[in-house]
Design goal:
alpha/beta, binds NADP nicotinamide-adenine-dinucleotide phosphate, Ald_DH_N, Aldehyde Dehydrogenase, Chain A, domain 2, single chain, 15 helices, Aldehyde Dehydrogenase, Chain A, domain 1, 6-stranded mixed beta sheet, 457 residues, plasmid, 7-stranded mixed beta sheet
């Protein structure tokens, strides 16, 4: 796909970027690998953490520019882009402040002698990232990599080339040397070639199951470590004793934030029968009342979808769901206006025979189910090919905790929509992928956990 900025609100293409050629790709590899052999990667950690601290400040200073570039390229409402930039500044700061502690050698008790595990960089990483959180997806890989000493080459989604370049520029401004972080405009074919290159030692991909399967397979073939952060169809459970207003407000943000294009967005609403009528009425009303409009307008909650392809795909999914018996409680079609807008939609009466039952809806479409007890909640929640996140709204926290333990996903949040913070490990199971990003777990995905033992004999 060609790299270009096509504003999803105006539907106008504003900029195009040529792909990097073979020579430029080779130069990127040479610079990254040369840096890996240098004291930048193999020496003291302090200079790298100082870069992260400055990067955090620079992201904060450039918050509005980052947010407006996201709005222009993929339609994220301005205040949501500012929230994303804040989170990114926090991630850089978190690793600047905590990497020394997280990466300090861990003692191992053994009858052989005194042992410990040290954490060393492994080499150049390749990151393949999606457009939905254009800066956050990058920093989830780049910040821990800088802390560890792994150079990163990234291929960003072809619809966010300016975000891709802006981030690289900020990292350089923060003082990272040439080769530490490199943005390449390249094709999927080139990604496969790069994974085969000896200088690449690991691959992190966030994206669809299709891309994950291809990249994961190629990494396996070349015996390279990979992490995959893929799709999800997260549940949003509302129990009878939940705070109704909080659940509705949380549900709206969890389904309409980023126009519903969040891997951990609430996609399947599972509501207990005693609260079902009240919740459905309030939730459908709030969906209908969501302010849709120009992402650059601070009042906008719901912007356009990021691309025409996304809009067409979602429209087709809803049509297919209805053709197989789903009932539309509100929405159900493209909004009657220019831009790639889709109406906030609630579907119900979905059976496992309906293809929609097992699909991820990457847009403002909620699937609503009414159930009678915990067994039904767990059965429905776990009847999914995905296993990313999930949310439970409840008054009785003991019951919610027990349910959380039984839901087969990588993350569950109680009484708050699924969210991301620098210190919280993020990732899933099943077809949502493998590995974790962020927190102390994420930074240890691409390290050499080197064991050293001094014999006691
Ligand atoms: P996508 O098509 O898989 O694109 C993601 C990235 O992979 C892009 O850079 C894309 O490049 C690249 N790509 C696509 N096919 C590839 C291939 N065969 N080889 C190498 N690279 C390839 O994903 P999307 O549909 O844009 O993004 C939405 C998906 O990502 C959803 O399923 C969502 O749930 C998931 N997601 C998951 C997380 C998480 O943390 N678990 C977070 C965000 C999104 P091009 O743009 O050039 O095609």
């Amino acid at each position: 796909m060609a790299y270009r900025t096509l504003n999803p609100y105006s539907e106008q293409m504003t900029r195009e970027f040529p792909e990097h050629d073979d020579f430029q790709v080779e130069m990127a590899l040479v610079r990254a690998d040369t840096l890996f052999q240098s004291t930048w990667s193999k020496g003291e950690r302090a200079p790298r953490l100082a870069v992260l601290a400055r990067l955090s400040d620079l992201i904060t200073t450039n918050c509005d520019l980052l947010a407006s570039t996201m709005a222009e390229e993929m339609g994220k409402p301005l205040f949501q882009g500012q929230m994303e930039a804040d989170l990114c500044a926090g991630i850089a700061r978190y690793y600047a402040d905590n990497a020394d502690e997280i990466l300090k050698p861990q003692p191992v008790t053994s009858d052989v002698g005194e042992g410990w595990v040290e954490y060393h960089p492994v080499g150049v990483l390749l990151a393949v990232e999606p457009w939905n959180f254009p800066i956050y997806q990058l920093i989830r890989v780049v910040a821990p990599a800088i802390a560890v000493g792994n150079p990163v080459i990234y291929k960003h989604a072809s619809i966010v080339p300016q975000c891709a370049a802006l981030f690289e520029d900020l990292v350089r401004q923060a003082g990272a040397p040439e080769g530490a972080v490199t943005n390449l405009y390249i094709s999927s074919t080139k990604v496969a070639e790069l994974i085969g290159d000896d200088r690449i030692q690991g691959v992190a991909l966030t994206g669809s199951e299709g891309a994950g399967s291809k990249v994961g397979a190629r990494a396996g073939e070349m015996l390279k470590k990979s992490t995959l952060e893929l799709g999800g169809s997260d549940v949003f459970v509302v129990l009878n004793d939940a705070d109704l207003a909080k659940a509705v407000q949380g549900g709206i943000f969890a389904r309409l934030g980023n126009a519903g294009q969040i891997c951990t967005g609430a996609k399947r609403f599972i509501v207990e029968r005693g609260i079902a009528e009240a919740f459905t009425q309030a939730f459908v009303g709030a969906m209908q009342g969501a302010v849709m409009g120009d992402p650059m307008d601070p009042q906008t909650l719901l912007g356009p979808l990021a691309s025409r392809e996304g809009l067409e795909g979602l429209s087709g999914q809803v049509e297919e769901a209805v053709a197989h018996g789903a009932t539309v409680l509100t929405g159900g079609k493209r909004a009657d206006r220019s831009g790639f807008f889709y109406e906030p939609t609630v579907l119900t009466d979905l059976t496992p025979e309906n293809p929609a039952f097992y699909q991820e809806f990457f847009g403002p479409v909620a699937l609503l189910f009414v159930v009678d007890d915990d067994e039904a909640i767990v059965a429905l929640a776990n009847d999914s090919n995905f296993g990313l996140g999930g949310t439970i709204y409840a008054g009785d926290i003991t019951r919610a905790r027990a349910l959380a333990s039984r839901i087969e996903t990588g993350m569950v949040f109680i009484n708050t929509p699924t969210t991301s913070r620098p210190e919280l490990p993020f990732g899933g199971i099943k077809r949502s992928g493998y590995g974790r990003e962020l927190g102390d777990v994420g930074i240890k995905e691409f390290v050499n956990r080197k064991l050293v033992v001094v014999s006691n004999t």
